[in-house]
């Protein structure tokens, strides 16, 4: 204990920054340790091209279109199954109240998903929660479409909603990352249009599919296929927009350059 105090006293006498992590083993810091605050990686001024808000307009536009499309698919998926629930109840030999759980549990998944995806987008960035959420929702929706019994259908619907909640809470964060206050309101209004536009169009399209030769299962295959397509687009073209993770990538590039 006395050795530790003596090293701390020595650090203070040498002007060593106490924000540095301890050396360990009771050893003090070298006297030449710089001020840690001077080496924090940040954007190079307000016009730094690495700042997501300074990305080219076309880059921000295709990102906004891609992620809002994912939101539309998720919200569309929440309501389209209702049009085919009566056919599903007859096929599985259950009451219509039971098949209504397919919609109810999807919405319950919507309510539960933000507990995972919202903090996840702060911990691992925006990109992977978006991709994993839409891809996972599509997988479970495909499972619903191929279900052999009502239990599989309603359980998969819950997890489809759980994963489908990802764009609902991550997309506004991405739009806030890439648009400044001048254009952010317009971007969020388009996002809101996709949130409410999906459930608005779903009953019309679902009823058309159900009354055609395709049947109720295609009310689920359609959003599943759309989700897989959207997930592929995001995987190929979506850039990480959360500023701390952009700076982490900048730091990683500097580290690689310093080893050359």
Automatic annotation (TrEMBL):
It is a multi-pass membrane protein. One of its GO terms (cellular component) is plasma membrane. It comes from the Eukaryota. The chain crosses the membrane at residues 61-81, 101-118, 154-176, 188-214, 220-238. InterPro entries: MFS (IPR011701), MFS_dom (IPR020846), MFS_trans_sf (IPR036259). GO terms for molecular function: transmembrane transporter activity. Residues 63-260 form the Major facilitator superfamily (MFS) profile domain. Pfam families: MFS_1. Keywords: Membrane, Transmembrane, Transmembrane helix. Gene3D superfamilies: MFS general substrate transporter like domains. It is found in: Membrane. This is Putative bicyclomycin resistance protein. The keyword Membrane applies. The keyword Membrane applies.
